[in-house]
């Protein structure tokens, strides 16, 4: 995040304590990232929607407790809430069900990806299974890095580990993923 | 790019990923030449999206749930109610007297002791009915007979002593007078 963006976000958070519209702006800023982060961990669109709702409601409820610190910006705090909410969800629903392609969310079209919607969903499902097979920490780092769009420094803050550990785990995870992905094809 | 698992290579890969993540999509064609980075590009392209309806509904819900919004609603309600509550300037001793007088007038209006029917009830003697006559003790038979006889006439003897009689006359307009009649004269 650029310094200018960081300052803007800081002002927006301060405004959001008193102004619902400012909170709406923060929501717009983070909705896609939180949604992608959650859907990669949960799979089913229905459950994802429930959890995302829960995450933002918790954030709203606890906004007054959030204080901007040097290494803890609003994004890190929000992703910590998201992570804890997903952990709670899996404590309640320990059994993972196989999700039908129809129950998966839409995947945005992109020139790199196939034009067929169902094909895109299938690739998403394959990728998700590969990420699920990674060790827990590596999976979390990959999802936070690529779908939550968090930088290594922020991931370190969210997971309470060092930045170097984040970097090495990310590299290892990417290599494993790539190898398995090639094997799959 | 050699991707042996050593710290310098890890850093190179991370630098490339960082570079890749910060570059706009149009300029990412060079990534196709590198399998791993190409794979990373594919992961990043795999973006599940929420329905616009869900996104907007959740935003509106959060704006309504915002604690400040709730407070504002209460403030608005209180401001509206204030129009109904008298201002402090009106709460004087004089206003209290006026209110008290009003209450007194209303009460008197309900009771209405000056009503013509009510006046008759208080001032006129109670009409004599036969059942009352029957209740007169038998020892006073003479008075009882006279009372009965006089019922059809325009007078009645209320009390009779040796020296005088107390007679009530009913005049032609219905009004009544009580006269003392001296028997000895």
Verbal overview:
The complex is a heterodimer of chains A (185) and B (185). Chain A is an all-alpha fold and 185 residues long. Chain A is 71% helix and 1% strand. In chain A, helix 2 crosses helix 6 (136-147) and helix 4 (74-92) crosses helix 7 (152-159). With 185 residues, chain B is mainly alpha-helical. Chain B has 8 helices and 4 strands; from the N terminus they run ααβααααααβββ. Chain B has a 3-stranded antiparallel sheet. In chain B, 8% of the residues are buried. The model of chain B is unreliable at 1-7 (pLDDT under 50). Chain A binds chain B through residues 17-21, 23-24, 27-28, 31-32, 35-36, 39-40, 49, 52-53, 56-57, 60-61, 64, 104-108, 110-113, 120, 123-124, 127, 142, 145-147, 149, 152, 167-168, 170-172, 174-175, 177-178, 181, and chain B through 3, 5, 7, 10-11, 13-14, 17, 21, 25, 35-36, 39-51, 54-55, 58-59, 61-69. Strand 1 (106-107) of chain A pairs antiparallel with strand 1 (48-49) of chain B.
Attribute tags:
heterodimer; A: 185 residues; mainly alpha; 8 helices; 1% strand; globular; B: 185 residues; three-stranded antiparallel β-sheet; 4 strands; rod-shaped; disordered N terminus
Q: How much strand content do the residues of chain A show?
A: under 5%
Number of E strands of chain A? 1
Largest sheet of chain A: none
Uncertain regions spanning at least 5 consecutive residues of chain A: none
The number of helical elements of chain B comes to 8
What is the overall silhouette of chain B? Answer: rod-shaped
Number of strands of chain B: 4
Rg on CA atoms of chain B, Å:
53 Å
The parts of chain B where pLDDT drops under 50 for at least 5 residues are 1-7
Distance between the termini of chain A: 35 Å
Q: Helix content range of the residues of chain B, please?
A: 40-55%
Q: CA-to-CA gap between the ends of chain B? A: 154 Å
Q: Give me the strand/helix succession of chain A.
A: HHHHEHHHH
Structural class category of chain A: mainly alpha
């Amino acid at each position: 995040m650029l310094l200018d963006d960081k300052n803007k976000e800081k002002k927006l958070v301060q405004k959001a304590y008193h102004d619902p519209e400012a909170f709406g702006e923060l929501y717009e800023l983070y909705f896609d990232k939180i949604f992608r982060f959650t859907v990669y961990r949960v799979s089913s669109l229905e459950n994802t929607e429930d959890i995302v709702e829960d995450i933002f409601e918790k954030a709203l409820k606890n906004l007054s407790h959030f204080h901007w610190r040097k290494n803890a910006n609003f994004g890190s705090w929000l992703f910590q809430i998201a992570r804890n909410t997903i952990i709670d969800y899996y404590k309640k629903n320990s059994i993972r069900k196989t999700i039908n392609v129809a129950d998966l969310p839409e995947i945005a079209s992109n020139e790199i990806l196939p034009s067929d919607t169902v094909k895109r969903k299938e690739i998403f499902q394959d990728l998700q299974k590969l990420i699920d097979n990674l060790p827990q920490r590596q999976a979390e780092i990959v999802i936070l890095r690529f779908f939550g769009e968090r930088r290594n420094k922020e991931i370190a803050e969210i997971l309470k580990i060092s930045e170097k550990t984040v970097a090495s785990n990310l590299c290892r995870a990417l290599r494993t993923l790539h190898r398995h992905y090639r094997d799959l094809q | 790019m050699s991707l042996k698992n050593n710290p310098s290579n890890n850093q190179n890969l991370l630098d490339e990923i960082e570079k890749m993540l910060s570059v706009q999509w149009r300029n990412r064609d060079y990534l196709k030449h590198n399998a791993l980075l190409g794979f990373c590009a594919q992961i990043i392209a795999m973006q599940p999206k929420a329905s616009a309806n869900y996104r907007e509904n959740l935003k509106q819900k959060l704006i309504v749930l915002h604690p400040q919004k709730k407070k504002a609603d209460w403030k608005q309600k209180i401001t509206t109610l204030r129009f109904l509550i008298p201002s402090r300037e009106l709460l004087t001793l004089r206003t209290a007297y006026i209110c008290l007088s009003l209450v007194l007038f209303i009460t008197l209006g309900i009771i209405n002791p000056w009503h013509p029917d009510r006046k008759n009830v208080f001032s006129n003697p109670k009409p004599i009915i036969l059942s009352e006559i029957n209740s007169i003790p038998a020892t006073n038979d003479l008075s009882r007979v006279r009372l009965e006889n006089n019922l059809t006439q325009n007078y009645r003897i209320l009390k009779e002593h040796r020296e005088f009689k107390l007679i009530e006359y009913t005049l032609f307009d219905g009004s009544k007078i009580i006269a003392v009649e001296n028997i000895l004269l």
